[in-house]
Amino acid sequence: MSNRHHITETPRKVTPSIVRPYGDTTGDGMIQVSFTLPLPCDKRAEGAALQLARKMGMDPALVVHSKAIGPDYTFFVVYGSTNHLVDLSQVTVVERDYELLTPYEVNAAIRTRLRRKLVVVGACIGTDAHTVGIDAILNIKGFAGEKGLEYYTELEVINLGAQVLVPELVTRARAAHADAVLVSQVVTQRDAHIHNVTHMTAAFREAYPAGKVPLLVVGGPRFEEGSEGKLGVDKIFGRGTTPGEVASYLTHALVSSSRRSHS
Ligand code: B12
Q: Which of 165, 162, 173 is nearest to 121 (CA)?
């Protein structure tokens, strides 16, 4: 008699604990990176790009694109196989720790529990003129199919626009009795976003009595996830943030949780 069993169950999909990038075939490790070297665009620059790629663990590596950026710089795209592995057991992520609410639920929570409008002051600070991000969150037309915070009847939104200096932001926030201050930083050259935000948080802590500082929220595409403590802010939002996420967070932090906004 045969000892082969007839398998009736659908095979379970096993998630591997170690993965490599996928290019042409599973696990071939193929990746593509781009960078600029301060060298004129010639064969030596290509050799330098390949040396860098190998030092980053790419072997074999191929320069698939190089272009001069002026006389002294070259932009590269290098394609190759990385010899690094990803250990999924060592991956840590920051999960959202508040519930996503509809505009109706946000308005109802503010109306019934705060019993006044929740005041939000927003700005793009320093020399940064990239307002598209903060406008995506604040303007009524919104972003990614969601209406912006101006659409919420129980939110009073004051958008100060671009290149707002920190002292002005503090003055306007105090005058408006802001519950939350929303700041955008897109330019990260020479860590401008870090310097501007730490300057801003220090100014708010100096201008307000302890425990009365408005909720400080920053956003932009290049903030390090989980660095709230380092920057002295309550919350950081990154690329792809939608207005609904921000409205839900404000409700969670200022209306639903034990932290109550000042009146
Ligand atoms: C449009 C644009 C401009 C426009 C800005 C117009 C405007 N009114 O905003 C103009 C032409 C003025 C401009 C100028 C410059 N720019 Co520009 N610009 C861009 C570009 C192409 C798109 C940015 C954008 O609008 N993204 C779309 C929005 C929706 O995305 P977002 O900003 O990430 O916002 C989302 C999230 O991050 C988050 N978010 C953002 N802010 C906030 C705030 C809060 C409170 C919350 C909750 C969430 C949140 O929510 C948003 C929605 O999901 C980017 C390149 C790119 N593709 O990203 C370069 C880019 C940002 N610019 C750059 C540079 C260098 C400049 C200039 C210095 C160029 C120059 N030499 O003059 C100047 C600087 C001007 C200044 N003083 O700031 C660099 C920055 C590099 C760096 N490391 O800092 C980039 C990355 C281009 C590049 N690859 O080099 N720019």
A: 173
